[in-house]
Amino acid sequence: MQLYGGAGGLRHDRPGAPGQPLGSFGGIGAEHWLGVEPVTGRDLFARVVHGARVSLLIAFAATAIVVVTGTAAGIAAGYFAGRTDAVLSRLMDLTMSFPSLIFMIAMLSVAKDVNRIVLMTAVIGVFGWPGVARVVRGQTLSLKHRAYVDAARVGGAGPWRILTRDILPGVSGPVIAYTTLLIPGMISTEAALSYLGVGVRPPTPSWGQMIAESVAFYETDPMYFVIPSVFLFLAVLAFTLLGDALRDILDPRGGRT
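Above: the chain's sequence. Below: its structure in token form.
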């Protein structure tokens, strides 16, 4: 089945739609399961798969930074209290009140000669940890006066042993549930930054970047817009539902009633 026509294998005979793929639904067929991109003729399935790798890599890496930093800060603030709690709590408030999206756009716009994936991961991770830290701090405050923690303290256990052996296992359930709820937000943030043109740059594919490129063709080739949008929606929905389920299992008191 012929999917392209004209110069470069793309159709130019339709007024107002230069480079539109031949065939219905953007050239979807046996050779190209999701069709092809207008003008370039690149296989859309391959672009979606590679875009998923980039989006999920950034989302998982940024989430790891957020969870590790937030858990460490929350446990330290809740257990040591006093001045440590005051300093870390003010740092949490400052970070959460900072216009993070504007800073991300500005930073990614001026930093041109760096690895975009590494920079996006770092920038997104820097602004995400206070939410985890507050959850962990609250859990730590309720755990540090439990009988088994007092027994460990009386038995001569040091702060490091108490934090790693007694406090950390007690906060792991809510942290795991919160982590799965963070991932869809990270995916959306990466897609939004790439859509705005300050995220991943061509030729590296990204779902947000593909959606931005498809805006010019949504009237003549709507499938080019629909396909990456649907995959982005399904990914966010899947992790959101997973997060809700894990939260109800691991943290029943914080679940929905």
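Confidence is low (pLDDT under 50) at residues 1-16.
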